[in-house]
Model the fold of this input.
Amino acid sequence: MLPTIALVGRPNVGKSTLFNRLTRTRDALVADLPGLTRDRHYGKAKLGDLKYFVVDTGGFEPKTDDGILKQMARQTLQAIDEADRIVFLTDARQGLTHGDKQIAEVLRKRGKPVVLAVNKAEGMRHGVVTAEFHELGLGEPCAISGAHGDSIEELMELVLAGYEPEPEADDDRPRNPRIAIVGRPNVGKSTLVNALLGEDRVIAFDQPGTTRDSIYIDFQRGERTYTLIDTAGVRRRGKVFEAIEKFSVIKTLQAIEDANVVVMVVDAQQDISDQDAHIAGHVLEQGRAVVLAVNKWDGMDTYHREVTKNMLSRKLGFLDFAQHLFISALHGQGMNGLFPSIDAAYAAAFTKLSTPKLTRAMMAAVAQHQPPKNGPFRPKLRYAHQGGMNPPLVIVHGSATNHVPDSYKRYLENTFRTHFELRGTPLRVEFRQGFNPFEGRKAAPLTEREENKARRNRRRGRKLFGGT
Ligand SMILES: Nc1nc2c(ncn2[C@@H]2O[C@H](COP(=O)(O)OP(=O)(O)OP(=O)(O)O)[C@@H](O)[C@H]2O)c(=O)[nH]1
Ligand SMILES: [Mg+2]
Done:
């Protein structure tokens, strides 16, 4: 599970600026999809190979004039409690304030490891600006500038000391599909968990495995063993599983991160809310295979069903690649499609696409529609190969590919999706300039054949030119 770091501090000390700097490394692949709302409080960041979640605790709730502690409202305290470590930001320009001392007191009481950062210290002598902050008794203050990026890496190395990157398992298909059931409170996650685990064909193993505070429940259905990653606190009570709904964004993010397939649950009888869109946005950002379960479909008339479907395509249109299941977890209706959809999404996420097949599909698409000319530039697409799995990444090589418009990229995505029947998984298409097959090797590992060819070529080169 990835470590979680919360950024805490008075208003205006630069939490959001630091948050943006830390999370900026995320690619823009999912940026401009209609309906996609990004949750600016929660993000994923990277220090070297170490990935972590970062929480910006500012702006959770409207500011009042009742002093700093009122402003550190419930949600901030929850974020502090859920985080593994805290970065406490202060302002070098303002110096140590009363508010800082109050926050320090709160943090000390909570007992979480804290690193104290003195922000806006660009152009100032670090020893001088940090001096007065020792008084907070939170250890050596770290002078940084979030806006300029000074000493940010040093800060995060300190904060994340002791954490190791998790081994990259993306290319090896894990044995058991890991399923996370996510959604905002009250959409029916618990009922769905029960319906899933209570199914006649399912044998749930009694002992849940616990990693820190996430719970993994193994169960078997037919030949297959699945692992359910619990976000809601599932407890077994007699024959039924009971989920105590305590919604936590961090737990949701961690479950999405750990899962191979996410079952995103929404409530058909309520409006699709921003919170739904935030959660769905995270699923997409993580590149997870997903099944959309539209729950509480019972007891709705045709008109309201239409309304809900319209709302879904308006607000969660960016999940259109996912199977939509209209279900009633309570009455066990529409549930037959669930496992087949989960299996299909899982299989799609780990599909292997050969270079010749990808290239042929691409060429057929190009023959139908040329990429449009952009000023003097006419992009030419030459070949495509798979750059990764889970989610599938297709890398298209050619010239002037930076002039390919997004609409054309989506056209290619749809082409590949249809052609290779990739239902339920996000699919990423990236372009590479130039048509040297060895270019971009770091980002896109060579296939075995390409690797062998490269080795042969190097051997030939050595024979011809000598050297090692
Ligand atoms: N000089 C300087 N200004 C900074 C730095 N970091 C942030 N600022 C500025 O400080 C102001 C507040 O920054 P924010 O990142 O919005 O602060 P915040 O802590 O998120 O504020 P709230 O969310 O309102 O609590 C902005 O005008 C930033 O441009 C820095 O490193 N140096
Ligand atoms: Mg802010």
Q: What stands out?
A: Residues 63 and 71 are 6 Å apart (CA to CA). Residues 25-29 have pLDDT under 50 and may be disordered.
